[in-house]
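Morning run. Coffee first, then this:
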Amino acid sequence: MAERSKRINLHDDEKFKLVNPETLKLFQKYQIDMSIRDLSENTIDQYNSDLMQWFIYMYDKQFNLSVLETIDEDIEEYYYFRKQEGNNVNRQKRVMSSISAFYKFLRKKKIIKESPVEFIKRPKAGQPIIAQTYLTKDQVQLMRNKLDEHGDLQLSVYALLSLTTMARVNAVANLKWEQIDLGNRVCNNVLEKEGKIVELSFSVEVKELLGKLLEYRKSNRIEDFGWIFVTPYVTENKPISNGTLNDWCKTIGKMIGVPTLHPHDFRHSYATLLKNEGMSLEDVSMLLNHSGTDVTKKFYIKTDTSKVRKLKDSFVI
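And here it is:
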């Protein structure tokens, strides 16, 4: 008999009232659409339960994003959370179907042009939900070389700042110059996941790149409204979008032959590189701003099996 998937219950009536108003408004419109499609009461209940739990996850973990702001990486993070909590593939596929159906409704009503779930592959039995990429030291060096050849200073800052701070994409998107302490190589008062205010440290290499970027902006009188990363769509009250940074990451991935690269891979990669170079698990966990080492060890560090194989070969049996 197949193993029953662990149930995850995020439902909370009080939190649901605080979910992004835009999301709740669209959710109410979706109720009307489902009611005229002659769906069974049980099917509607399942769809609603799946969506409400997803909304509450976004409220708790993703800065209460609107469903119109959400990108594929945000939804992948939610799927990955459910996988960590014990959901099997069949239950994951059902949740994915519920979210996909909601976005199909938004497309049908011409509220969105494309659905973020279109970029996420659905798993087959026994396959993982998300393919994580752990960049090697050689790939990081290749990335440096390719970025130098490309000549986009801002893109270089984004890649190496994301890598060496191990910050999540939303934190990177919202960074301002006033938070940067070049002397001590830290970003201060950074809003991270679950409302934590953290300090991020970056490398000497990034310090030099940030200095060059700041000087370039001043010399060319580029208005950045105080934000580190800018596009023509950035304003005083609107930072660069997570989606744009995700696109930048895909561009970098193509440069180095890793087309599936996404922003969270920088975080996993550098954590693993630090651990494999000899940094303690506790220190890596602290830099990731984890509350303990369990999550760091289980989900962020890829074991260097080559060391274990070499050790094995040293034994004569």
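Residues 137-305 form a domain with the hpI Integrase; Chain A fold (CATH 1.10.443.10). Good start to the day.
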